[in-house]
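Data card: per-record layout.
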Amino acid sequence: MASNLFTSDRLTVEDKSTRLYKWMTDRPDSSSTELLQEVYDEQASYYDELLCDKMGWYGWKEGSEFFNGQLEKFGFSKGIRILDAGAGTGLVGKRLSELGYTNITALDISHKMLIQCKEEGCYKEFHQCDLNIDSLDAYNKAFDAVIAIGIFSKALVLPQGMKTLHNCVKKGGLVCISSRSKHFENFGHKAMTEEMVAKGFWKNIGRQDTDNYFTGQISGHYLTFQVQ
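The structure for this 228-residue chain is written out next.
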């Protein structure tokens, strides 16, 4: 259970950082809804310190700014309706709010993470779901753009989650995703983006690569697709 991995009173934040990194890297496939909820509910109160300060991940900032650049390039206003998929504690939403965006919905698998999002004061709506099993029919073509930073990996959201997010966006809208290079290329996520391009679901309109996506100079990608 996740509690055995992360909640021992004897573990320092550094210990939890090491265990979380190994858990995210080594899990053979996507985890169950219950396990993912437990992991992220338990970490909600110290997640920012764990992920940013101890693990050195600032993809939320780089990804938000890349997304903003893409939106500005294609003439979207600051009042568009945005879905922050895998919102976590609200780091992406907070940065987008600082950049002027005013209509953001937070989506996450963890109830306690969404409580943290509410405290940031930058979201209008909140939705708890597992993108691996929830079709989000209520949000069909409801958003002008989606941002999904750091959720597509073998331990978190499977490749078909991209189709779910695609279905939430109006024609001409944007979907921005990020992933570690290893996970993107080796666990079906890259193949899914290419399949969706080939079938006319969306077209790839932007890409930014980084050699320091995560601690240890791990490479990663930020990608933007326009819904067709």
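Known properties of this structure: Residues 2-54 form one domain. The radius of gyration is 16 Å.

See the next section for split statistics.
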